Amino acid sequence: MADKTKYNYEIKKIGAIVKSFSGGTPSKNDHSFWEGNVPWVSPKDFGDFYISDSEDHISEDAIGFTKKVPEYAVLVVVRSGILKHTLPIAVNTVSVTINQDVKALIPMANVDASYLAYFLKVFETKILGRCVKHSTTVQSVNSHEFFSLEVPIPPLDTQKKLSAYMDMARREYERSIKEAENILKNIPEYILKEMGLSFSRSKPQTFYAIPSSILEGRLDADFYSPKFLKLRKAIQDSRYKAVCIGDVCESIISGFAAGKQDQADDLPDNERVPQLRPFSITPYGQISFTTKKYVPISRLQEKDYCQKGEVLFNNTNSAEWVGKSTVFDIDTPCAASNHITRITLKEGINPYYIAAFFNMLRSIGYWKLLSTYFNNQAGVNIETLKAVRILLPEKPIQDEIAEEILKRKNTAEALRIEAEQDWEAAKAEFERELLGEMSV
Question: Name one Pfam family in it (predicted).
Fold first, then answer.
């Protein structure tokens, strides 16, 4: 690490230490451009400091149009809807091209690419506040402001030491986050095992025949695919009681729609409440306020507020995420959008067990196959939801399963929090060691 007493490094603007270019998009109608094997990277391909395998590839003929990115260029997303919260950055290590929403920064010989990338990440919040131009559609980086940002340039060996320190901290952060995710991902398998169920995740058959004698008023082949017939039979034959969801509910209702004219994001807190939407439920069944939308209190009736103990079921989303479920158990008053179904269970039924069973069904694709499709979204309506059969063991077993799931979620959350804290500490150390009190 750098000597804490030395902050007299040369300061240069980003525009003076990099060459840069943006990518482009070949015509979708020119199929010859898309018949190659060179990855074409867009914002959707960015992870946290890495680029995932792009689904899009172009031919060598298109590279003159989009430009090939050299190794160790710093890639920055400069136009995306997520720039309000984060600045996606990655150091390129393979042969790729980029689209028009990504900018490649090619550092001069005396600038380490990883050092520059970590500098941008450490000062991400300030850079977003200064350089991102917000609009009603999509956020974009103001190039003039961005290239005017000042960067300290220590000796190259110091840059590399700082990069190595951050690499180590990031690897530990990613390891802990992965461990936490694995704990959460394994919860559906725990539910299946405890209920004595099994499910093959192998690729399903593309065609099959179903006897007319077992049809129940539905003709969609997905619902009667062999693997789900096997699951449904296992539920029916289980040592535990099989019930229809509708039979264990006191009430089952959807929230209400709120268009832009009905939202209250600009009102003071005492005049608005959060409206829970699909993004308010994590893939692992937790309530999230990472992104919030609000509705005015003046519009709400008592019945519009979520009640503690309700199971919240995400009824409309992309097909993969339909069925995300959680239990409303927080003190913050909230309403729910029409993409959320609110379920009040009968007395003596543990809502955490029911939400966990729903999430298990989502993880194996059951809600996806029960969905109807419209406007590029999938949905499960209330009548379909009511008819689904689940296992309902005795209350002590429900409680035991719910307690174990809570323990696992708490363990994962503790890992995540510790990882976030350590990563923030590493970024702060980077700043202290290199920049002192200097601001962007």
Answer: Methylase_S
**Can you tell me the distance from the alpha carbon of 352 to that of 312, in angstroms, rounded to the nearest whole number?**
11
Structural domains of the chain, ranges and CATH numbers in brackets: 10-155 (3.90.220.20), 241-392 (3.90.220.20)
Burial 209-228 (b: 16+ CB within 10 A, else e): eeeeeeeeeeeeeebbbebb
- List C-alpha distances in Å: 233 to 10, 193, 214: 71, 16, 12
Rounded Cα distance between 326 and 354, Å, is 9
Cα distances from 191 to residues 72, 314, 355, 366, 403, in angstroms, run 45, 20, 11, 15, 12
Report d(CA 279, CA 326) in Å as an integer. 12
3-state secondary structure of 10: strand
Asked if 102 and 41 touch (Cβ cutoff 8 Å), the reply is yes
Instruction: Name which of 33-37, 265-269, 270-274 the model is least confident about.
Output: 33-37
Taking phi over 0 as left and psi of -120 to 50 as alpha, with beta for the rest, 305 belongs to beta
Distance of alpha carbon 127 from alpha carbon 143, whole angstroms:
12
Predicted pLDDT at 28: 64
Summarised one tens digit per residue, pLDDT across range 408-439 is 999 999 999 999 999 999 999 998 887 654 43
How far is residue 428 CA from its own chain's centroid?
Answer: 26
Average pLDDT taken over every residue of the chain: 87
Alpha-carbon span 29 to 3, nearest angstrom: 56
Q: What is the C-alpha to C-alpha distance for residues 222 and 373, in angstroms, rounded to an integer? A: 13
C-alpha angle 80-378-215 in degrees, rounded to nearest 5: 160
Write the pLDDT tens digit of every residue in 132-167. 887 667 889 999 999 999 999 999 999 999 999 999
Q: How far apart are CA 432 and CA 3, in angstroms?
A: 10
What confidence category does residue 324 fall into, taking pLDDT thresholds of 50, 70 and 90?
very high
Token pair of 161, please? 């030491």
